[in-house]
Amino acid sequence: MAGPKNLLDFVMMGSDFFRKPRVGGGRAKDPALNTPFSMNKHRTAPYDFEVRGKHLGNLLAPKVISPEDLKGKTMYFATGDRTSNDRLIEEINGYLLRDPKQTYGGPEYMDQLLRGSWASEPTAMKSKANAFKDAAKAGEDVILSYMPMGERSGDFSKHMSEIYGEMIKASPMGGNSFPMIDDALAARFPKMEGIPSYNNREEFASWLSNLKGGDRAKVIKFFDSSAMQDLGVPDVSAARFAVTNPDLINSQALSVGYRMSSPDLLSGMIKSGDHPSYGAFVPRSQEGSLRLASELPYIIGARDTALPKAAVTFLKNGKLAPQPKDVKSYMGNPRLSQFIDDQWIDEASTYTDLLRTQGRRPAEEYTMGLLRKYIEDL
C-alpha cells in the first residue's frame, strides 16, 4: 500500500502499535484480539487497522522542557480523551469517507492558536476556574498538565460520532439487517426520541452526531457490543483508533507531561461555541504549550495524590495501572494538585533517563520500586 503523497498526508498502521494475532488461534485469550479499544474480542485484528487522512497544519509544536524547569510550580491536572486535533480522517479500513471529518480533541487543544488553556463542559470548567482563583489567592505558580483517560473515552466527542457516522454511510451492508438494528436500538434506548431507521444512512449519521455527548457515547458503546457487531455494523474500535492521537495509543492512563499549559488564574470560565464538543474554556496566561521528553507514570507525575490510590490497588490485586475509580477521581476533583519539589524532579529525571538509556522495563521496575517503598513506609 502506498505511503503518504505529501507532507500533510498521514497513514496510521495498526501494525505499528499492536501485536500480530497468533497463527491458528486456539482457546487461550489472544492479547492481539483483546485490547482496550473494544469492549469485546476484535473481529478485525487491530494489527490490520489502516487509517489515512491529512494534517491540517494549524497547530504549534510544544516546547520540550526538562523536569527541573517546573521547579516551584504547582501542577493541576486536566483529564481528557486521547483523540487527535486538526486531522482530517479520509479512510478507515477501506471505508472511504465521502465527507471526511476533522478531529478537535484531546491534549493538542493546548497547541492551538488563540484558544484556552483547557476546554470542557461549563460545569467542569467553572469548578476548575474556581480552583485556579483560589490558587492565585494562595500565591501558587500554576501549570496545568493533561492526563489521558481510557482508550474509549473519546466516544463522548462529536468528531467520534461524525467519523463513525461516515463509516455507517460508507458501509456496504444490506439485506435484512436493517429491521433488526432498528429493533435493537429501540429496545436498548426506549426513552430516546427520534431514532431514525438505520436504513436511512444519511439521516441516521446526522442524528447520531447531533446527540448530546453522553447520549452519543451510549449509542457508540452499544454499537461496539457483540450483538450489534453480529448484525454487521462498522467496527467501532477501528473508528476509535482512527480518531486517537498516535502518540497516545499506548500511553498509560493518567500519565503526566504529554502536554501542559499556563492557565489564566483570574479570568474565570468563559462560555464559547468554538469547540464542537465542549461549551466552555479557561483562558491561558501565555500562548503555546509545553511537554516533557517522556510521559511520567501517575505515581511519579501526581505523586502525593496518586501513591495512596496506587497502594490500595496494588495491595488488593497486585496491579500498578490506575483503575477506573482513580480516573474518575482526577476527573471529578478540580483541586487535586502536585507541588514540584526536588523529590519530584529527581524521580521524574531518573525515570526519563532510564526509559531513554535502558528501555521501558527498567523504567517500570524503578516505578514499582517507588510504590513498594511507599507501602513499606506506611
Cα shape: globular
- Largest sheet strand order: 1-2-5-6
Largest sheet: 4 strands, antiparallel
* Rg, nearest Å: 21 Å
Strand content: 15-25%
Number of strands: 13
How many structural domains does the protein architecture include? 2
The class by helix and strand makeup works out as alpha+beta
The run of helices and strands is EEEEEEEHEHHHHHHEEEEHHHEHH
Q: How far is it from the N-terminal to the C-terminal residue, by CA? A: 56 Å
What are the segments in which pLDDT stays under 50 over at least 5 consecutive residues?
none
Average per-residue pLDDT, rounded, comes to 94
Helicity range: 25-40%
Number of helices: 12
Explain this structure.
There is one protein chain. This protein has 378 residues and is α+β, with helices and mostly antiparallel strands. It has two domains: 9-156 and 245-376, no CATH class; 172-233, no CATH class. Helix content is 36%, strand content 16%. It is built from twelve helices and 13 strands. Strands 1-2-5-6 form a four-stranded antiparallel β-sheet, with helices on one face. The chain has a four-stranded mixed β-sheet with strand order 9-8-4-13. Strands 7-11-10 form a three-stranded antiparallel β-sheet, with helices on one face. The longest helix has 17 residues, at 360-376. It is globular. The mean pLDDT is 94.
Give descriptors for this structure.
378 residues; four-stranded antiparallel beta sheet; four-stranded mixed beta sheet; 36% helix
Short description:
With 378 residues, the chain is of the alpha+beta class. The chain has two domains: 9-156 and 245-376, no CATH class; 172-233, no CATH class.
